[in-house]
Amino acid sequence: QINVLQAKKKFEILDAMLSFMHAQYTFFQQGYSLLHELDPYMKKLATELDQLVIDSAVEKREMEHKHALIQQRVISLYLQDFSYDDSKVEFNVDAPNGVVMEGYLFKRASNAFKTWNRRWFSIQNSQLVYQKKLKDVLTVVVEDLRLCTVKPCEDIERRFCFEVVSPTKSCMLQADSEKLRQAWIQAVQASIASAYRESPDSFYIE
Prior knowledge:
Blueprint: H1 2-8, H2 10-82, E1 99-108, E2 116-124, E3 127-131, E4 139-142, E5 149-153, E6 161-165, E7 170-174, H3 178-198, H4 200-205
Antiparallel strand pairs: 1-2, 1-7, 2-3, 3-4, 5-6, 6-7
């Protein structure tokens, strides 16, 4: 009789299983209802996302195009700065404007890093001066060329270098070619000689 009673209790297990299945059904039904309410918003979000992807691709393409144009412009300006006319290699100690010679040179800094910077140099009024840009204020490297010497430098890591030495300091410079280096050296030497011819007496008195 006990076994018969135990066998009849199987309905309790089935009832528990059925209750569990109902709970599962209710859970997923509520989840479906919630997501179904969100369906219009998700569709709208998907549409906006597609548009964002398109806009991002267009913006990226425009930025790449602008970047390419800027690079071309920078390279063009760089090559324009570095290009020089052979007619400008010559110097003139009797130039009406007083500028014996001018052009771009690399100047080695006197700091610990010995960095090289490209500057616009000129020889005028018996001085060696430079500017960072063409219209900047002049920076005097050598105040009186009569007190200086100039010589080419071969034992250095860069080509076409020459050094202007004064009693207080020296300035290491680099030209863009051997022809330009020789022209600058000759221009400095000619300026020194011209300065001696123009005012020898006052120089000796000093």
